[in-house]
Design goal:
Elements (H helix, E strand, L loop, with lengths): L15 H16 L7 H8 L3 H7 L3 H23 L6 H18 L1 H13 L2 H28 L7 H16 L9 H11 L11 E2 L6 E2 L3
Helix pairs in contact: 1-2, 1-4, 4-5, 4-6, 4-7, 5-7, 5-8, 5-9, 7-8, 8-9
């Protein structure tokens, strides 16, 4: 597991004050261009002195990064809770797909700020965000590799498959895709089967018990 570097002056778990600062900053970043948001504005919106703000965050970039890493931390806590009893590799992939979908669907702000991060943040901040992204990729790749060993996923590049699945989840959770309750299962089914008809091999069906791909006997 990759250890995150701290981007605030305060160590330990986020305090009530830092949480208020992050919440105020997020609201401002969503409402204005990055270069139009000043640390003075954030301090005022958070109800604290500017000096207090700098006790927690050195720069505006650190604040922006703090908003995104807080969302990542929330997701990872939920993920660890849901995977205490992961089951088979395919069952675990189903749980992660559903959890990621619900998280992204309920946190549209994360979409907006993460896409803008590549434009606004410095290289060192972007690298920290990529580490967070890579944690998810490595987790998915590990399960894909396990699925290959179990014989439910065809041999290939686990990381490549992981990138494809994560891209599908991100795209399907975007509001423009009109996500529905059954979307996570649809995403996993398309990932497993593809969308091209293969009459020479017969249709691939899904096991009603496990949700894993199987072929008729």
């Amino acid at each position: 597991m990759i250890k995150k570097k701290s981007n605030s002056r305060k160590s330990g778990p986020p305090s009530e004050k830092s949480g208020a600062i992050l919440k105020a900053a997020k609201r401002l970043f969503l409402g204005r261009r990055f270069d139009r948001v000043l640390m003075d504005d954030i301090a005022r919106a958070a109800g604290c002195a500017k000096g207090t703000l700098y006790l927690y965050f050195r720069t505006k970039e650190d604040l922006y990064l703090g908003i995104l890493t807080r969302d990542f931390d929330l997701f990872h806590r939920r993920l660890e809770s849901s995977l205490r009893n992961p089951g088979t590799a395919w069952e675990a992939l189903g749980k992660i797909t559903a959890l990621l979908f619900r998280f992204l669907k309920g946190n549209y702000d994360f979409f907006v700020l993460s896409r803008q991060a590549e434009i606004h943040l410095r290289r060192k901040h972007r690298e920290l965000l990529r580490e967070q992204h890579n944690r998810i990729i490595q987790m998915l790749a590990g399960l894909v590799g396990k699925g290959m060993e179990e014989g439910v996923i065809q041999n290939g590049d686990p990381e490549g498959y992981a990138h494809i699945l994560l891209g599908m989840i991100f795209a399907s959770a975007h509001p423009a895709s009109r996500p529905a309750a059954q979307t996570p299962k649809l995403v996993l089914r398309i990932f497993a089967e593809g969308i091209r008809s293969r009459p020479d091999r017969g249709p691939t069906r899904t096991s009603s018990r496990t949700g894993s791909p199987r072929r008729p006997g």
